[in-house]
Design goal:
The chain is of the alpha+beta class. The chain contains 12 helices and 15 strands. It starts with a strand and ends in a 5-residue tail after the last helix.
Length: about 375
């Protein structure tokens, strides 16, 4: 028998051990995001685990068979969201089998009801197998609040609950060879020429950690302003550098002492991920992005990472084509969104309003957006 419970910091080590050993585990599942997001944005971290109910008292932490990290974003006007995991591409359920996966989702739906949330969002790299086992009509026949013990879908859903899978985005993943030299030789002549161009123009790349954060953040703020999007808090990046002290790394491309492009990376197991990258549009003729991405790939290869994750993109758009030229393969990002049917359909209307907001944001002074951006961004889960 399996039971699902909410746990505290005492389970952090065994939680992370489970994530590291699970074949689908990634850095977005790690327990340390509790401190990162709490310190940066004040949001609550909800840690759900599935354990064997027949284990001896005091040994529950040795019997973990599934985990589900959730962040509660409490918005006073637009309503609460439960997201696994906000601000990141992935997260969601990690379990030994579909039955345990279903129990964890069921418990999350219980919390969804209790907290009065508008959405429960699970960001998965693969399809949720347990959802295939629901009847063609997934509406719950019992809307009463369950008590203690295992919680399944049928005990929690109601007729007005809808589940939509948002699959418009992909992650771009590149399998790496054993060395950067082999990778460079695998590129076409045109791409190799583009990689060498910024160096010929006098550009160079540095990699490091906290000492490069200011340069990274200056470029990041400028780029987000040009895109019409509120920027993340610098405190978020600072906390990531603390919690991922050995795994997080910043890359910055310079012309003389002027930073032109920068990226933030996290290594986990054998995957090297790039969740954030930016460049200054005014210097695009110097191709600083080519040197930036090559520097990340070179580092990943030479430090024995097996794959490089370029981050999410929309198929056939500019960033997608840029990443595809390096040989990256698109893999679907499956974001499962539970909510009322009325609420889910309202997302269609958000597209036009978002464009209006982007246009207005671009017209604000950059200095103002640096201060206002984090205050807004903390409530945007993307």
């Amino acid at each position: 028998m399996i039971k699902t419970v909410q746990v505290d910091d005492r389970f952090e080590d065994c939680w992370d051990d489970y994530v590291v050993q699970h074949p689908a585990g990634n850095y977005c599942h790690l327990f340390r995001w509790k401190r990162i997001i709490k310190n940066a944005y004040g949001h609550t971290f909800i840690a759900l685990i599935a354990i064997r109910s027949d284990c001896k008292q005091g040994e529950e932490n040795r019997q973990i068979v599934g985990v589900l990290p959730i962040i509660r974003i409490k918005r006073y006007i637009l309503g609460n969201e439960l997201v696994s995991m906000p601000f990141l591409d992935l997260g969601g359920v990690l379990a030994d089998d579909p039955e345990i996966e279903q129990l964890l989702i069921g418990y999350a739906l219980k919390l969804f009801r209790q907290k009065g949330a508008k959405h429960l969002e699970l960001r998965q790299a693969e399809e949720l197998t347990s959802l295939k086992n629901i009847d063609d009509n997934p509406g719950y026949h019992n809307t009463s609040e369950p008590q203690h013990g295992p919680v399944g879908f049928k005990e929690l859903l109601s007729d007005d609950l809808d589940c939509q899978v948002m699959d418009q985005k992909v992650r771009m993943l590149l399998k790496l060879p054993g060395s950067s030299g082999v990778l460079m030789k695998s590129f076409k002549a045109k791409l190799r020429s583009q990689i060498k161009k910024p160096t010929k123009e006098g550009l160079y790349c540095r990699s490091g950690r906290k000492e490069l954060l200011d340069d990274f953040y200056d470029i990041f703020c400028t780029n987000m302003h040009e895109l019409g999007s509120p920027v993340h808090s610098k405190r978020l990046m600072e906390n990531i550098l603390v919690e991922f002290s050995q795994q997080a790394r910043i890359f910055v491309v310079y012309s003389d002492r002027q930073p032109l492009a920068a990226s933030f990376t996290i290594g986990f197991n054998r995957l090297f991920s790039n969740p954030w990258a930016s460049s200054l549009r005014g210097y695009s003729r110097l191709a600083p992005n080519m040197l930036l991405y090559w520097s990340m790939l070179e580092y990943a290869c030479d430090h024995q990472f097996s794959h490089f994750d370029f981050g999410r993109s929309t198929p056939n758009e500019g960033t997608y084509r840029f990443k595809a030229q390096w040989g990256a393969t698109p893999l679907p990002l499956l974001w499962y969104c539970f909510g009322s049917e009325k609420t889910s359909l309202s997302s269609i209307k958000k597209v036009d309003s978002r464009r209006v907001a982007e246009n207005l944001w671009q017209k604000l002074p950059l200095s103002l957006t640096r201060h206002l951006g984090p205050l807004i961004r903390r409530f945007i889960s993307l």
